[in-house]
Amino acid sequence: MEILQLNHYLCGLLNEKIGITMILKLPDGRTSSILIGENIENLSDYLDSAKVFILTNPSISDLYADVFPKNATVITMPAGEQHKTLDTVLRTVRQLIAGGADRKSVIVGFGGGIVCDMTGFIASIYMRGVKFGFVPTTLMAQVDASVGGKNGVNCDGYKNMIGVFNQPDFVLCDPKTLKSLPARELKAGMAEVIKSGLIADAALFSYVEDNVDAILNCEKKRIDFIVENSLKIKALIVEADEKESGERKKLNLGHTFGHAVEKHSKNVLHGEAVSIGLVIAAKISELLNLITNEEFMRIKNILTKTGLPVSTDITAANLLEAIGKDKKRESGFVHFVLNKGIGNSEIREIACENLAALLDKALKAL
Ligand SMILES: NC(=O)c1ccc[n+]([C@@H]2O[C@H](COP(=O)([O-])OP(=O)(O)OC[C@H]3O[C@@H](n4cnc5c(N)ncnc54)[C@H](O)[C@@H]3O)[C@@H](O)[C@H]2O)c1
Ligand SMILES: [Zn+2]
Question: What CATH homologous superfamily does 183-364 map to?
Answer without folding.
Answer: Dehydroquinate synthase-like - alpha domain (1.20.1090.10)
